[in-house]
Design brief:
- It is built from 6 helices and 2 strands.
- With 168 residues, it is mostly helical.
- Helix 4 packs across helix 5.
- The radius of gyration is 49 Å and the shape is elongated.
- The termini are far apart.
Amino acid sequence: MFKDERGDIGTDKDMRDGADTAPAAFEEANINPDLIRREGFASEAEYRAYLATLGGDAPVGGTVEEPLLVSDGHALEGRLRELREELENLRARLHVIQHQAATVVTENVRWADASAHAQLGNQPWLKLAGAMAATFVVTRGIMRLPLGAVATTALPLVAAAMNRKLAR
């Protein structure tokens, strides 16, 4: 007596690899030599006669198992679990993206600050504010000048210069 992987106890005959054992149909055919058919069946009647010698018509309905019905609640619970897992994955990915975006913004601010220090030295933002204020004052001053009189005086001079270039 031996114990197999399922824990069943059997004899050494049960433990053989099955290479020397014949199938049950073959052993039955040795008892009744009419069951062995070496060629195909010539007609439907011959096939039915062969089936009758094997034991008659077996009911097909009794041998087919009914499919296991899964309740809608069980299927919905499984789908809900899958959706929750997918939601957790999306949340984790969103967290990573938010962290990466914050890192990019922080690094861009550091780069801009370092660039301004490299170009303008100490207190670059104060110098930029001074340059913007100076630009505003100069622009206001230019707008108050009487450019109409300047343009009227300069227009004939520009036209004469253009004529000389075309004449050459």
